[in-house]
């Protein structure tokens, strides 16, 4: 099936590992030009090289702190100069730490807002003018099932990521006339390094092995397993494709059915 992504200019943030990396590789396999960014240069460059080798695609990689508005603008300009266009932007960032409400400092609230909300604002503001030139664009945010189903001890994520959903809906309303579609992908428990950290925290508090926590999470989902990052990437790339040309302002859950609402 042709997804219409060949030759498209694609940015995938926080793409050195996990869901971001899986999405970057899948875009590359579809023939897109892919720009990857993440904070850690060695890990990012290694991931980019592996994707180039596996797909033969053009892949540009640059270390970037997505909480730095001017650095984000410069990165986007560099990508546009290199590719000649920017068609797709996948916003992504590491999740905030697991804490209960009373233990969260004001500085931690500000950091979570910078990392998981304002980073989306910076990327969207930088890429939208390039998308408007061609009257075609896709902005896809990666959040969490926590936007529908608040997760215990993830107060920061529950609150800040929900703000992203409000932004997604607002942007979809404002820029739909320009051919720009804006959607959100909300993964459930997915086998990433982030999940390992959360499992370790919960296992320590409960006095059980981390494997027990993984088993509990898997049992909560109707499919009785955790997601693979590639399964989340499939949803991201589909939303970026011509096959999802009448979908905007939506949150697509990739959670194995763990959210039981209608």
Short overview:
By secondary structure, this protein is of the alpha/beta class. It contains eight helices and seven strands, in the order βαβαβαβαβαβαααβ. α1 runs parallel beside α2 and α1 crosses α8.
Question: How far from one another are the termini?
Answer: 30 Å
Over all CA atoms, what is the radius of gyration? 18 Å
CATH superfamily of the largest domain: NAD(P)-binding Rossmann-like Domain
Sequence stretches where pLDDT stays below 50 over 5 or more residues: none
**How would you sum up the global shape?**
globular
Q: At the first level of CATH, what is the class of the largest domain?
A: Alpha Beta
Q: Could you tell me the mean pLDDT? A: 96
What report would you give on this structure?
It is a single chain. The protein has 262 residues and is of the alpha/beta class. The chain folds into 2 domains: 9-189 and 228-254, Rossmann fold (3-Layer(aba) Sandwich), CATH 3.40.50.720; 191-226, no CATH class. The chain is 49% helix and 15% strand. A 7-stranded parallel sheet has the order 3-2-1-4-5-6-7, sandwiched between helices. Helix 1 runs parallel beside helix 2 (41-55). The longest helix is centred in the middle third of the chain and has 29 residues, at 106-134. The two termini are 30 Å apart. The mean pLDDT is 96.
């Amino acid at each position: 099936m042709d997804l219409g992504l060949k030759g498209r200019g694609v940015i995938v943030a926080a793409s050195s590992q996990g869901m971001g990396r899986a999405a970057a590789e899948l875009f590359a396999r579809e023939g897109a030009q892919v720009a990857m960014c993440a904070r850690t240069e060695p890990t990012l460059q290694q991931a980019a090289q592996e994707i180039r080798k596996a797909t033969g695609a053009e892949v540009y990689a640059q270390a970037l702190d997505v909480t730095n508005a001017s650095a984000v603008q410069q990165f986007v300009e560099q990508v546009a100069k290199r590719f000649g266009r920017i068609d797709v932007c996948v916003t992504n960032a590491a999740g905030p730490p697991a804490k209960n409400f009373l233990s969260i400092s004001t500085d931690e609230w500000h950091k979570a807002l910078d990392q998981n909300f304002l980073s989306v604002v910076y990327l969207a503001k930088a890429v939208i003018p390039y998308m408007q030139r061609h009257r075609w664009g896709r902005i896809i945010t990666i959040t969490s099932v926590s936007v529908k189903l608040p997760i215990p001890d993830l107060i920061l994520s529950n609150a800040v990521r929900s703000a992203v959903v409000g932004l997604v809906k607002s942007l979809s309303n404002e820029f739909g006339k320009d051919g720009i579609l804006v959607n959100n992908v909300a993964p459930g428990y997915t086998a990433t390094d982030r999940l390992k950290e959360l499992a370790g925290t919960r296992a320590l508090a409960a006095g059980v092995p981390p494997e027990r926590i993984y088993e509990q999470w898997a049992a909560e989902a109707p499919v009785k397993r955790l997601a693979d990052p590639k399964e989340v990437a499939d949803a991201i790339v589909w939303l970026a494709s011509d096959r999802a040309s009448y979908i905007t302002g939506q949150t697509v859950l990739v959670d194995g059915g763990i959210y039981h609402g209608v």
